[in-house]
């Protein structure tokens, strides 16, 4: 019983110590990062790239718009059961995620 208690206490201390290390290492990492300016890449590996302002809409029917109130997504085919979702219901299937990634070189 005594060994189990000592093991539990050591485990708690280790988890707390690791939490502190990760917390402070993240804080220190953030202070060394510089904000990069937004730029448009116009060349990549010797290939010229066109500007985003040169984009032209070329879909057959033009830009597509939907009525969120009446929109339905129907999933059929190689599924066990056909499913129908509203616009908001479809978004709830896979909530959006946002994040950033810092690369230190």
Number of helical elements? 2
Q: What distance lies between the first and last C-alpha atoms, to the nearest angstrom?
A: 50 Å
Record the strand order, biggest sheet: 1-2
Mean pLDDT: 78
Binned, the helix content reads 25-40%
Strand percent estimate: 5-15%
> Which descriptor suits the 3D outline?
flat
The rounded Rg comes to 26 Å
Number of strands: 4
Q: What's the assembly state of these chains?
A: single chain
What's the SSE pattern? HEEEEH
Largest sheet: 2 strands, antiparallel
Which structural category do the helix and sheet elements fall into?
Answer: alpha+beta
Give the low-pLDDT segments: none
Q: How would you describe this structure to a colleague?
A:
Helices cover 35% and strands 11% of the residues. The chain has 2 helices and 4 strands, in the order αββββα. A hairpin with a 7-residue loop joins strand 3 (72-75) and strand 4 (83-86). The radius of gyration is 26 Å and the shape is flat. The mean pLDDT is 78.
Short description:
The protein is of the alpha+beta class. It is built from two helices and four strands, in the order αββββα. It is flat, with a radius of gyration of 26 Å.
